[in-house]
Write a structure and sequence with these properties.
mainly alpha; YdjM-like
Length: about 240
């Protein structure tokens, strides 16, 4: 399912759940719902979430910086032959396609969070470790499982449940809705690896005309649910 559809469905359903249960729809809850609705696709560098967080303009800027950096390392780092090897490595990275460069950036950001992020927030080392792990995963792998959902919801629960329970409920629901939506596709998901059991409804294939129809139906149903949940506020 396309990122736009995941965003609308996951956010719409999770905020409706908050409204039905009487929990406040706060700005942090909305933000976490938006992130959670797209987060399972963090294992795909060209997904909506990753491409917005690391846009093409940033990738082009990185490519522009890397070549001069390689030249600088070769001529000014006095550590032969390691300066040559490092310069070649940096130069090779600069010619990687945008998909691969996004993975390199994700890994670098994760590494930074592991080594330096804990000084700002204790959970940053976990976030950094997970971010580095995601660069090694195949699409619809570990992030599209019960384990991924549990980790995400668990992190939110342990940090927000006491003061703002709506945050972990919104984020966890949005994440779970992403998996449910992907289970409608021909490929489906494997919720409990290494078990080969797969959930798939075979209703659509992402990117096809029939798939677009199914996605639009799901979006309309989400909007109807949201209208039922929030219409009393306007009556």
């Amino acid at each position: 399912m396309m990122g736009r559809s995941h965003l609308i469905i996951g956010t719409g359903v999770s905020l409706s759940v908050l409204q039905f249960t009487g929990l406040p729809v706060t700005a942090p809850a909305v933000t976490v719902a938006l992130i959670g609705s797209l987060l399972p696709d963090i294992d795909e560098p060209n997904s909506l979430l990753v491409s917005k967080a690391l846009p093409n303009s940033l990738i082009r800027l990185l490519q522009t910086i890397l070549l001069p950096t390689a030249v600088f390392v070769y001529f000014y780092v006095q550590s032969q032959p390691w300066n040559l090897l490092l310069a070649i490595l940096i130069g090779m990275v600069s010619f990687l396609p945008s998909r691969s460069l996004r993975k390199v950036l994700m890994f670098a950001i994760g590494l930074g969070l592991v080594f330096y992020g804990h000084a700002f927030a204790p959970w940053n080392w976990i976030a950094g470790s997970l971010l580095m792990l995601c660069t090694t995963l195949t699409h619809r792998g570990l992030t599209h499982t019960v384990y991924g959902t549990t980790v995400w919801a668990g992190l939110l629960y342990t940090t927000t449940a006491q003061l703002q329970p709506e945050i972990w409920i919104a984020g966890g629901t949005a994440y779970a809705m992403h998996l449910l939506a992907d289970s409608l596709t021909n490929r489906g998901i494997r919720p409990l690896p290494p078990l080969k059991w797969r959930i798939r409804a075979n209703l659509m294939s992402t990117g096809t005309k029939h798939g677009a129809v199914v996605e639009n139906v799901c979006i309309v149903l989400t909007l109807i649910l949201a209208w039922i949940a929030f219409s009393p506020l306007f009556l």
